[in-house]
# Entry
Amino acid sequence: MYDASHNFLNVHEWAYGATEIVHILSLTAAIGFIALVDLRLLGVAVGQASAARLARATAVGSLIGLVVAITTGFMVFATDPVRYFNHPTMRLKLVTLLVAIIFNYSVHARVARGDFPLPIRRGVASISLLLWVTIVFSGIFYSFT
Ligand code: HEM
# Structure
């Protein structure tokens, strides 16, 4: 049986705080890079770069951000797995995260790099932003409830 009381993050308070900080910084970077592409697809972003160029330029940054956010998320999760797993917004966040990642690397990547009509570009960008905003708010929600 897993005993969370020996978890490194529970034994060392600084490590818990440091991991939370890295979680927040990395998720901000990941979603920030993805949102840059979304705003360009919506046609509301400043600057001249096309969505395809922005998608290429931000791909590595958003991938690193996602990998670090997911890794640190599971590290914090492991400090109290039963409580976190039983929280409905944590489950909502994990399911939405899975959908968002699949969407990001399939439909979103294709539309950002292709030559699609404006309504499709806008629809895809709106879905992407909605998914990421849902994930962020469900994360904030269980942190403070
Ligand atoms: C890109 C993906 C992710 C995003 C955008 C995200 C978002 C967030 C946000 C906004 C918070 C609240 C931070 C705060 O205000 O304290 C948070 C905390 C947290 N996240 Fe994530 N998260 C992601 C991935 C994950 C994953 C994969 C897990 C693992 C199950 C996870 C587990 C946690 C835990 C345990 C907390 C701390 C809750 C607390 O303060 O008690 N996250 N996340």
The radius of gyration is 17 Å. The chain has a mean pLDDT of 95. DSSP finds six helices and no strands in the chain. The pocket of protoporphyrin IX containing FE is lined by residues 20, 23-24, 27, 30-31, 66, 69-70, 73-74, 76-77, 84, 94, 97, 135-136, 139-140, 142-143 (CB under 6 Å).
